[in-house]
Amino acid sequence: MHITSAAFVNDAEDGLIEDFKELVERLAPAGKNYHHHQTGEDNADAHLKRTLMGHQVTMAITDGKLDLRPWEQIYYAEFDSQRKKRVLVKIVGDKAAN
After folding, report:
1. What is the DSSP string of 14-54?
2. Architecture, CATH, for domain 5-78
3. In this predicted structure, what is the pLDDT of residue 90?
4. What is the C-alpha separation between 21 and 83, in angstroms, rounded?
């Protein structure tokens, strides 16, 4: 629930995770003089990375279990670790009639 963190679903493979890290760093590099920094902040790259990766995940649940494919995982990525974070899980739907 923080503006510089992302949530996404993808293949649970270490090489792919490293590729994501390299991609977002190439597209929104740390240390660049962003316009956002003129407000006194220094984390514009984290905001941009979050926008690139997405901020929420919607998943189906069947018989009380997440409908993840065999290699999928839900990932939480934090691009600005300076602040405390919270994760919100909401379950929306109807309980099946017995």
Report:
1. HHHHHHHHHHHHHHS-TT---GGGGGT---HHHHHHHHHH-
2. Sandwich (2.60)
3. 85
4. 20
